[in-house]
Amino acid sequence: MKRIEYFTRCAGEPAPLEKSVRRVVRFNEVDPMNIMWHGHYASFFEDARIALGDAYGIGYQDFYRHGFIIPVRRMQIDYLSPLQFGREYEIKARLFYTEAARLDYDFTVLDETGSVHARGCTVQLILDKEQNLLLAKPAFFEAFCQKWRGGKL
Amino acid sequence: MKRIEYFTRCAGEPAPLEKSVRRVVRFNEVDPMNIMWHGHYASFFEDARIALGDAYGIGYQDFYRHGFIIPVRRMQIDYLSPLQFGREYEIKARLFYTEAARLDYDFTVLDETGSVHARGCTVQLILDKEQNLLLAKPAFFEAFCQKWRGGKL
Amino acid sequence: MKRIEYFTRCAGEPAPLEKSVRRVVRFNEVDPMNIMWHGHYASFFEDARIALGDAYGIGYQDFYRHGFIIPVRRMQIDYLSPLQFGREYEIKARLFYTEAARLDYDFTVLDETGSVHARGCTVQLILDKEQNLLLAKPAFFEAFCQKWRGGKL
Amino acid sequence: MKRIEYFTRCAGEPAPLEKSVRRVVRFNEVDPMNIMWHGHYASFFEDARIALGDAYGIGYQDFYRHGFIIPVRRMQIDYLSPLQFGREYEIKARLFYTEAARLDYDFTVLDETGSVHARGCTVQLILDKEQNLLLAKPAFFEAFCQKWRGGKL
Asked: What is the ipTM, given to two decimal places?
């Protein structure tokens, strides 16, 4: 199966930011087919997305403090190989640089041998508290992106 | 197995209020033992508790509108016979009258033959928005209880 | 926002099969932003997919009885407008005809005014019980598809 | 609030076995009241129960390998103080010695200051694969209990 790329990176754009977390599949996450139910991957992705956001000060709560919410507008999940009860997996999130006022994340779920079990992505928009869609990045996030472009993170 | 009574009813107290809902066990609620996972009963009970609260205007959102929250302080579940994927069950909630400032619910989960699969109860306390525990019922709920005692619901 | 089409329909192929279910957003499905958490849509879609499969005898359990499993290989969700606690939504599933050995579903989540809150799709592959990917439809499903093509469902 | 004891320990019985795990409250576990939803505690308890069972070779999968299942027959939860999003808690499980053919666990959920947020218990019965209730412990578990009584674990 060929490598899936959810986002294209333009020339001159900085490399994506990365963060990994580890998570063990719970008994109640396993379905009658004895594999993790496909709906739980959203929570796996979210663990890694939140960890990256917290690590860089651009998480859901950081946006909220500045008066913005960042709802998920699209999610895609590609299931390559099932996850097993009791086994630990690495979930790697990458945040892609974009000029647009949004957050483009992709995700990879790997086992301890490095074998890839799933990939996916989420796209989040930025709204103010009156639910208006932002067309430009809010100031604190633009400042963050400038550092990122400048290689100063 | 003998009948479980979670709450005692004192002489002169009005009969409990009742409300039933129906719910089908979902694929993702079934665990690797092919029965509904024991942790999902809390949501089954909540469906019936919310339906009763809404029917009588004493639900979580009614309390909230009056400035109160009603967190669950205790829950007990007795699992008698497992629930199966795809099958529909009746969940019956009963709210017991009490002089105390709290909400005492019990629950019964039955199949279409009337066979009982689970019983349980929740006890909810009443807090104001500063998280202070109420020792007396708030006025709107006391008024409701008076009607209940008077047989005027 | 323009209409999203997840699957293309070739000339001469029969119309998709349709089935709708209704579902109320539960208290425990709502997140701290006071809207249904984005991960729960997988369960909403599954309700409609299972209802359609059961209605036509081509559900997960029907495949299983014939010796096959039908894991989800891809899921995409487009979130257009959030879902609110206590409100009922219609979830419409459509199964698209395809010559390939797979199940292509799309989904629409609507409120009672007909306004669309979300769209999405799932693609399921067909495996035998030794986890081998089927390249052709199993006999019982091919027979079903013939009737479908012939307008005899 | 006084200390809750779910199980009584008879003279001469060995001390309970203990095991703790740590867990962070997820975004999707938080309800509209901004605290962890009361139904998720079952999963918190299960994390600690599974960790203890695995540590001692008497977990759900160990019983299963010997031909037995150990369904939860009763669960009780006492909610003392809510759990907050993003905060890490310790969940301590204790398995109590009993002559009966069952598993008596109690649980304590604490924050990093040692403050107790919840207590609870589960009682599990032992069934064979024809769903017959065991009145005596299965041999492998009786052997384990002998070591436990003898202080040889």
From this structure: 0.94
